[in-house]
């Protein structure tokens, strides 16, 4: 079963953006889109140029902020400023 076939282009773009964000843990992506960490890695591998995928993978491996259970108490949020209007897969209409 392909977990990506139900995702539209805007959702895939948002998942990629969230995966690149340092403060967004994989658990937040799973909550919003239902993709596990390994599925996000597969999606990134499929959608990105190999060189960029290797850069992203090297950046993410061992990063404490990408895993909620490894975060320190000083990190209390995962949303970026642009994510204010986005909640649970619903992207707000642009004004």
Detailed description of the structure:
This protein has 95 residues and is mainly alpha-helical. It contains four helices and two strands. It has a two-stranded antiparallel sheet. It is globular, with a radius of gyration of 13 Å.
Can you give keywords for this protein?
95 residues, mainly alpha, two-stranded antiparallel sheet, 4 helices, 44% helix
Q: What topology, given as strand order, has the largest sheet? A: 1-2
pLDDT averaged residue by residue: 75
Helix content: 40-55%
Radius of gyration: 13 Å
How many helical stretches?
A: 4
Distance between the termini: 37 Å
Unreliable residue stretches: 91-95
Largest β-sheet summary: 2 strands, antiparallel
| Beta strand % | under 5%
Give helix and strand order, one letter per element, not per position.
HHHHEE
Structural class: mainly alpha
Task: Detail the topology: elements first, then pairings.
Elements: H1 9-20, H2 26-33, H3 37-47, H4 50-60, E1 86-87, E2 90-91
Antiparallel strand pairs: 1-2
Summary of the model, kept short:
This protein is mainly alpha-helical and 95 residues long.
């Amino acid at each position: 079963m392909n977990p990506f076939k139900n995702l539209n282009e805007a959702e895939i773009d948002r998942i990629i953006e969230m995966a690149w964000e340092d403060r967004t843990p994989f658990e937040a992506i799973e909550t919003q889109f239902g993709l596990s960490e390994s599925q996000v890695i597969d999606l990134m591998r499929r959608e990105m140029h190999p060189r960029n995928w290797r850069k992203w993978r090297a950046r993410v491996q061992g990063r404490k902020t990408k895993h909620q259970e490894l975060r320190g108490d000083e990190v209390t949020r995962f949303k970026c400023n642009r994510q204010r209007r986005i909640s649970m897969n619903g992207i707000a209409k642009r004004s």
